[in-house]
Amino acid sequence: MRSDALTGGGTRMTTTGGGTLTGNSVLTGGTPAPAGGTTNTATGSSVADNRGRAAIFDLDGTLLDSMGVWDQIDAEFLAKRGIAVPDDYMAKVSAMQFRQIAEYTIARFGLDDTPQALVEEWNEMAKRMYAHVVEPKPHAVAYLRELKESGAKLAVATTMLPDLRAPALAHAGMADLFDAVVGVDDAAGRGKEHPDVYLLAADTVGVDPAHCTVFEDLFVGMRSAKRAGMQVWGVHDDSSDHDWGRICALADGVLFDFADAPRSLR
């Protein structure tokens, strides 16, 4: 059902494999300074030239601060059936599609519901939350606008279903910023343990995978994108704390706040 959380505090610091620390972000191997960029007329700051590059973003836990939503949905859903949320439940389902989660949940708790009934119940609960409650993570919208101005192609690669991601993007003020929005439902139903959804996003915006940077909070997604030849930035999320060491070892960089995200894409 997703993976998602609150960002870390503004003063949180991390080092990764001898990388260079900048604010709350860590560059593993470094990110080159923008060369020959333009100037943002609104802020006076330098804007990198990212033409021919693409940035691909996960939604839950990466652009959207949605951990509390799924905690609440899980708690309410299971409480109606007299079940407390197990400590490992969120980690178990984080990379799954909705139907996979439904099948897993039915099997784990011995529920009488059908997978379709569970999916529909979760969807109705989530629609209300995403359309009215979920907010973008700090500085996410400003960062997207800056990348857009720099000439980068922007795409979403998500496990969220269309009837959730559309209202979520609209409420977060991001709907007009993306050149492509794709989900695992568009990628033959293959989850983020496979690179298909990232490759589909790259293909849809017409950028070679070697020139794509993926922003993701889920370790298995980062690993898939990396295997597809893409650069990967790990976005800290409380739900990924159990994988944070592996994320830092794998990613080209990590960040706690989009104010510290790379301005120049590979």
Distance from N terminus to C terminus (CA atoms, Å) equals 31 Å
Total number of beta strands: 12
By CATH, the topology of the largest domain is: Rossmann fold
How many separate structural domains?
2
Helix content: 25-40%
CATH domain class name of the largest domain:
Alpha Beta
Number of helices: 9
CATH architecture of the largest domain: 3-Layer(aba) Sandwich
Strand content: 15-25%
User: Low-confidence runs (pLDDT<50, min 5 residues)?
Assistant: 3-24, 28-44
Largest sheet: 8 strands, mixed
What does it look like?
By secondary structure, this protein is α/β, with parallel strands linked by helices. The chain folds into two domains: 20-66 and 135-260, Rossmann fold (3-Layer(aba) Sandwich); 67-132, DNA polymerase, domain 1 (Orthogonal Bundle). 36% of the residues lie in helices and 15% in strands. It has an eight-stranded mixed β-sheet, with helices on both faces. Helix 3 crosses helix 4. Residues 3-24 and 28-44 have low confidence and may be disordered. It comes from Bifidobacterium criceti. It holds the Pfam family HAD_2.
Which structural traits does this protein have?
266 residues; alpha/beta; Rossmann fold; DNA polymerase, domain 1; 8-stranded mixed β-sheet; 9 helices; 36% helix; disordered N terminus; Beta-phosphoglucomutase; HAD_2; phosphatase activity
